[in-house]
Structures are given as structure tokens and as C-alpha cells.
Amino acid sequence: MGGFLMAATRKGLFDVDCDGAAQPRCIGFLGDPVSAVLQNGHDGALYAALNLGHFGVKLHRSDDFGQTWTELPAPAFPVGIAADKEGEKAPSVSLIWTLAGGGPEQPKRLWAGTIPGALFRSDDRGETWHLVESLWNQPSRTEWFGGGYDDPGIHSINVDDNGRIVIGISCGGVWISEDDGASWTLGGKGLAATYMPPDRQDDPTIQDPHRLAVCQDAPDTVWCQHHCGIFRSDDGGRSFVEIKQAGPSTFGFAVAVHPKDPKTAWFVPAVKDECRVPVEGRFVVTRTRDGGKTFDSLSAGLPQEDAYDLVYRHALTVGADGKHLAMGSTTGAVWFSKDGAQSWRMLTAHLPPVAQVCFADAP
């Protein structure tokens, strides 16, 4: 597998040649924080979300692989929507945290997960957006809170071929829709939030799933990198079992699952909470191939001393063949593997901090 990676960074969107034949090239927004990138699998269009601080959230689309970009309306709350509490400001989107495409029969569908914890839908390639009020109006939403950010946010949107949607909210748990977002069920039974008082640690409403990844060919299997450990679901996210041993640490942010084998998943461990660097300065990827019973700690090609690389939620990805993986770190390095993470090759060490990587097909 050759091709390219898209790397969304703090200072622009870059394409990275997986073969290492060319240096990374900025294809848009140099100097601006790119919070999310998506290549729509239906038409190949690229979408890039920007977080411009005082100038707000922006969204752009390219139909020619980054040669030109068209600015689109960013997801926004309807005019007149009320604040949750009297005296507070009405909600406004401060970050587009993730973008996802629609199902097989929805070529123009896009989903956007934002901070605060709102889900938006577009049915016209991002030209217009609609708040998914069925989720926003959940009574338990008032109990959600920020995990890292001040406000809760939706960072994981998984849409399978049967129309099921599974989303992850920090901190608001796992939510499941079987009817294209018309209604929602709270999942996440079995997740444990040890940061809460004992009587609320099992409450699914306040869980902090750092990232959810669904097996494409077996969508009942959902892997979760949680703030408090690694968990696996075999019923579409309704309930989870904890994986208590996974190499150097069960703390981290990223998870990727093999698209065909639900028992194979990858994680990037770190020291928990305040420190957030590789354990003992050794940068490794952990892999299970038996559903979490055992893990390999894979380090070939990765720095093994004085490493301070952290891999964010969306900065680990696996290709459609399940063999090729890529990841980017907070130090601006990007690595590529051709053998299921058994070994790694650094593609660049000089990008700005990486928020997301994804494989992309050039036209």
C-alpha cells in the first residue's frame, strides 16, 4: 500500500507520502489549527475543520485533493436555542472534533461531532447542517461535563452498513441509534469511571470514553480506550468488559480496530492523567489478536528512550487491509507500518503537533 496520509496539525493540513518518496506538503491552511479531516468514501472529497479561536469554527471542502478549497457553512446551533440554565449564554460550537461520512446509500451525508456535546447532520455535502435534536434533548445531557475541555464533546462517530450509529462523548458516555439518529439509547454498561465518587463510578451517563472504534465487518464489536482503561463490547456498545492487562499501561487516547477481524485492535499506552508521556520513556504500540486476552508490545522503529510522544484520539489509523497503520504524535512525528504494527518507519519528524491522521486516495 502506497498512497498518502492526511495529517491534520496545529499549523495546517499536510499530505504525507507513505512511501517516503517526497517530503510532507501543506495542502491548505498553513498556520491554522486543523481539528478534523475526512475523505468521503463515496466521492473522494476532502473536508477540513478549522479552529480559529476568536474567528470561530470553519469548514472547507476540496474536490481536487487540496488544490482548491471551498468554504462551507460550519455546523451551528439554530437561532433562538435556549441555554441550559437561566443566566447562561446560548450554546455555540467551539470545536468540530470529528467528521464522519454516511452509510452506503447516503453518498452526500456527513456527520459532525462538536464541543459542546452536539451532533450535526448534513445531507448535501456540508452545504447545510442540522442539529440532531433527538440527542441534544436527552434529559441526561445536563449531567455531561468536559473531559480535558471545559465542555463535553462528541469525538467518536461510527456508522455501520446497517445504519447503526455509535457515538462517544467525553464525558457523556456511549450512545446508540438504530434508526439513523431519530432516537437514541444510552449504552456503556460495564464502563467504570474511577474519577467519580464510588456510588457513581458505574453510571453510564458520566463516562469518559476517549475513543470508540467499531470493526467494519463485525460492527457488534466496539473497542473503547477509556480514561480509566481499555474495554470491549460484543453487543454494539450496549455493554462492555474491561481488559485489565495490556502491556505498559491501559491508559491512552487512541484505538484502532482491524476492519475484518474484531479480535485485533491497537492502542498507544501512556502514563495516566497529569504526565501523559510514554511509560518509562519508551514509545510502543500494544496489539491484541485474541480479543484482549493477551497483548504484544511493539516497538521496532519507535524511540525507546527519552520519548515524549503522545498520540491523540484520532491520530492512529488502520487501512482497509488491516495491515497498514499510521500514527502521528504531539511532537510532530508521523510513523507508518506495513505489517500490522510489528515494525514502524518514521515518515517525518518535523510537522506541527498532529491531531489526526487518515489514509487518503489521490484522484
Structure description:
The protein has one helix at 133-136; strands at residues 4-9, 12-17, 25-28, 34-39, 46-51, 57-62, 70-72, 95-101, 110-115, 118-122, 130-131, 153-159, 165-170, 173-177, 185-186, 209-214, 222-226, 229-233, 241-243, 255-257, 265-267, 285-288, 296-298, 316-318, 325-328, 334-337, 345-348, 354-360. The mean pLDDT is 95. The protein is an all-beta fold and 363 residues long.
Features:
4-stranded antiparallel sheet, mainly beta, globular, Methylamine Dehydrogenase, Chain H
Task: Give the helices and strands, then pairings.
Blueprint: E1 4-9, E2 12-17, E3 25-28, E4 34-39, E5 46-51, E6 57-62, E7 70-72, E8 95-101, E9 110-115, E10 118-122, E11 130-131, H1 133-136, E12 153-159, E13 165-170, E14 173-177, E15 185-186, E16 209-214, E17 222-226, E18 229-233, E19 241-243, E20 255-257, E21 265-267, E22 285-288, E23 296-298, E24 316-318, E25 325-328, E26 334-337, E27 345-348, E28 354-360
Antiparallel strand pairs: 1-2, 1-28, 2-3, 4-5, 5-6, 6-7, 8-9, 9-10, 10-11, 12-13, 13-14, 14-15, 16-17, 17-18, 18-19, 20-21, 21-22, 22-23, 24-25, 25-26, 26-27
